[in-house]
Predict the 3D structure of the following.
Amino acid sequence: MRRIVSTALAGCAAIALAGCDGNPLARQAETKSEAEVAQAEFPQRVYWGDSHLHTDNSIDAYGFGTRLGPEEALRFARGEEVTSTLGLKARLARPLDWLAITDHSEGLGGTKALAEAPRILIRDPVMKRWHDLLNSGPAGSQRAVAEIIDARARDKMPPAMMDSDVGEKRTRSIWDAVPPLTRAAICSSRSEASSSSDFAKATRLPDATHAQYDREAAR
């Protein structure tokens, strides 16, 4: 981590100097040679982690049975004991060095919100069917998410599930629930978001399709 920060600072410093006295990167390249680069047969500092993990905030992951959120994922990566979706106690033998939680931006938290919504308030018959399937067990939950994905692909989603204002509000509430110290980079196909408002706008339905919020679980 310190190496990454140092590299970033060095890069910023080089850019700043470039505006004052020519191109320092070019001069640096002239003085360096391959002999100065330390070679090793194997990597000397290897960091183990997971670069692609989904939580219950992803539409598909929730439907396929994931019922743990970002905080549980981070705790597990740090080596803490967590209770799995099936009720089993789980703990890594060795904590991860880093973790990237890469939930889908489109419909962030949507499947979970539908499953947890009071049934009596769901008016759309298709959404009510999906609500029932999501709460009927593993097979029904998987069937529901398969139908949701198929409906999205055919542009047959219920209008209520495509309400961008509702999606933006839900996305903002999910992001605001993340402790500031665990927030890291947000990468979006549309923009780089640094606040909950920017993130919500970048990930609301139906515009953005690929965004991710990553958090570092480095010890």
User: Anything to note?
Assistant: The beta strands are 49-53, 82-83, 89-90, 98-101, 186-188, 211-213. The CA atoms of residues 25 and 64 lie 50 Å apart. Residues 50-219 form one domain. Confidence is low (pLDDT under 50) at residues 1-26, 185-219.
